[in-house]
Amino acid sequence: MSKRLNELTISEARSLLDAGQASSVDLTNACLEEIRGKNGLLNALLETFEESALEEAKRSDERRAAGARLGVLDGIPMAMKDNIQIQGKHVSAGSKILEGYVGVADATVTKKLKANGAVLIGRANMDEFAMGSSNERSAYGPVKHPHDLERVSGGSSGGSTVAVAAHMSLASLGSDTGGSIRQPAAFCGIVGLKPTYGRVSRSGLLAMASSLDQIGPLTKNVEDAATVLEAIQGADPMDQTTSSAKPFIPSWKEKLTGVRIGLPREAWGEGMDQGVRDRVTEAVKVLESLGATVTEVDLPYVDEALAVYYVLMPCEVSANLSRFDGMRYGQRKEGLSLLETYLQSRAEGLGPEVRRRILLGTYALSRGYYEAYYVKAKKVQTLIRRAYEAALTNVDVLLTPTAPTTAFKLGEKTKDPLAMYLEDIFTVGVNVAGLPAISVPCGNSDGLPVGMHLTGRAFDEATLLAVARAYEMARE
Amino acid sequence: MSLSREDVLHLADLARLQLSEDEIASAQNDLGNILNFIDQLKEVDTDGVEPMTMPARAEGWREDVAVPVDESVRELILSNFPKRKGDLLATPGVFEKPKGGK
Questions:
Q1: Do the chains contact at B83 and A332, CB–CB below 8 Å?
Q2: Chain B residues with CB inside 8 Å of A237's CB?
Q3: CA dist., res. A179 & res. A15, Å (int)
Q4: Mean pLDDT confidence for B36-40
Q5: CATH for B5-41 (3.40.30.10, 3.90.1310.10, 1.10.3720.10, 1.10.20.60)
């Protein structure tokens, strides 16, 4: 086999483990070695759990030897975004205000990964409290693009993404509020899946915008994304928004005969790089050659979805982050009075983008503006959800690029918040409507990866992933 | 549109954020730009449309019961406090006069 162990997909690694041709300790050591070699440059992981990972790997090998494998992820090294709690490990959400804070309980997804036997190899860098599209908003420095150190990884799950793309972990978990799994996946040439809202519990996730946040996998291929989703999905009494919908079970198709794919007219206009347009158009041809029917469809409110997002998200951010005031969590900067202690703790602990969004949300929720902004946005959200439902009655999946550009240069967009926000134009609608979506690599433009974005019906990840997988197989 | 200096200071006060002079100036401009972008929502006809509640149907409430934790977890929670007195979280006094204040 020409691939090194850390370069394997989950399914390839599992075959070797099952056949006794490699151990989890081998896999974990291969990843740790890659981290030692590359993380100094890429800054993907904020902390490597060298000791506990090797310990977990050893226990996994012992279980396997005893014929007591826990689950399909038993022995597989995975990285966790730094906003997902692991009991006894630091968790900072990429923020100074939580420096030194230790997770008190496992998140539900952490429990599920552990119960499945996964080896947790490190916590991954991210934009502070998941607010950013480039990972330049981390208090611990930006994550660099694995193919070009002068470019951004995308964000906010940039560390989780680069850990996989640079073969430091076999898979990762990220979180996606407006595109934070899918956009870095597209920039770095891997697969990123945002499940349906309600599919995966967020208990133990440090919340950004609770009505939009969803945890999902970053993986080397679609099959692996399905494997991880199967492991982490399900209703959870600790997150009352989780649904008891029928569980996701993969159902692969070789041919796409009878599958209807819609290209939203409104999404294919101006503002898209030519290289992105070309690669995604080629991907559409591949899907047609597999038997899919491709039609143009109407999907109104593409621009409005971003506007709705930039009302609802900051409102929830301003509420969710009010608890970070130096009293109960993380860093406190003692001032002369209680008020000064609040002010100084938040001034030293929270970065500029977080502060900007808190101010924006405070504005939209303040007296005299609540109806005009928050309530109005919630009404337009209803229209957006209906528009997606209408479009998805005539087609099975919607197809656009994941992002209008490829990975941009570090510093290129930090001066203009609105330009950075426009990076999310194709991805936020899905969060606003609560639907599942996946980014799948579809080639390079000037040496940089391009992602194809597929959106499916609520709780129909099976169809969504089947289309993505068929495309991926046809390209290989 | 751009927000007035007073607007920004009022918001900062509500949000318990202390802003530098530079931050006040850039907030006036940046928030103004973002609000201009958001203002397109005013053009959308939402007569008779209900605000969306929750994308997924909530599955109801769980029982509100205290769950005992191991001593090690209890200690973990306490050790995360920025300042503690024994098993209590220590905070600045709410009604205290500022130390060294007028």
A1: yes
A2: 62
A3: 32
A4: 93
A5: 1.10.20.60
